[in-house]
Amino acid sequence: MNCLVIDDEPLALDLMETFISKIPFLNLVAKCNEPLLALPYMNQNNIDLLFLDIQMPDISGIEFFKTLSKKPEVIFTTAFSEYAIEGFELDAVDYLLKPISFERFVTAVNRAKDYIDFKNNKTTGNKEYFFINASHKIHKIFYKDILYLEGLKDYTKIYLAGIQNPFLILQNMKYFEDFLPKNEFVRIHRSYMVAIDKLNTITKKVVTIGGHTMPVSDHYRDRLFALIQQ
Q1: Regarding predicted confidence, which is higher, 126 or 108?
Q2: pLDDT single digits (tens) 7-52
Q3: β partners of residue 157
Q4: Buried-state track 190-208, b at ≥16 Cβ within 10 A, e below 16
Q5: Which residue, 186, 132, 138, is CA-closest to 155?
Q6: Which residues carry this modification: 4-aspartylphosphate (predicted)?
Q7: Is the pLDDT of residue 131 over 50?
Q8: Which one is predicted more confidently, 171 or 197?
């Protein structure tokens, strides 16, 4: 996977370069200390993964990412945890809080690889089920049984009809947002995704499925109402 690092701190750039050099499937195309300096590399190369610092002098990483017409998968890096929510709302693969440990870095890039591999080799279109690894077992999950999903940063809980306890999966919500059929499931909040045919009540602020109530955020409301009106 071709990757690119943008960070205004020289030590942070060097650390990321060292980490990347230890991962066989990562190829560092360039490291840049200003976002705008990265544009030529992004235009001339197929960048699969962007490591992007958030707080920088001229333009923040978040604002820079919003300007990109062709967006690679992104892992945001920053020393300030308060930016995490906005980062995830931009569908970041992950969010690394400085100082970054190599172990945490490996977790993030493995998640990115899984997601990119999935996008490049999506074969679930005609299937009615998929498999997950949870509680030391492989489980077969039918799409029709899913009620809703709840995101917990690095993990996702999958709630199924007829099963009291949800499955806890080491994948974030972005993965499932792209993985699940878009005409059957819709994200309604940074922390929630629901099965459209399981919805009982819908308002501009909340939805209910069975006895569960979930918030609807402004960011996802239009998509929700567009789908239910089809």
Answers
A1: 108
A2: 999 999 999 999 999 999 999 999 999 999 999 999 999 999 999 9
A3: 150, 168
A4: bbbbbbbebbeebeeeebe
A5: 132
A6: 53
A7: yes
A8: 197
SS3 for the chain is CEEEEECCCHHHHHHHHHHHHCCCCCEEEEEECCHHHHHHHHHHCCCCEEEEECCCCCCCHHHHHHHCCCCCEEEEEECCHHHHHHHHHCCCCEEEECCCCHHHHHHHHHHHHHHHHHHHCCCCCCCCEEEEEECCEEEEEEHHHEEEEEEECCEEEEEECCCCCCEEECCCHHHHHHHCCCCCEEEEECCEEEEHHHCCEECCCEEEECCEEEECCHHHHHHHHHHHCC
Mean pLDDT of the chain: 89
Reported pTM: 0.61
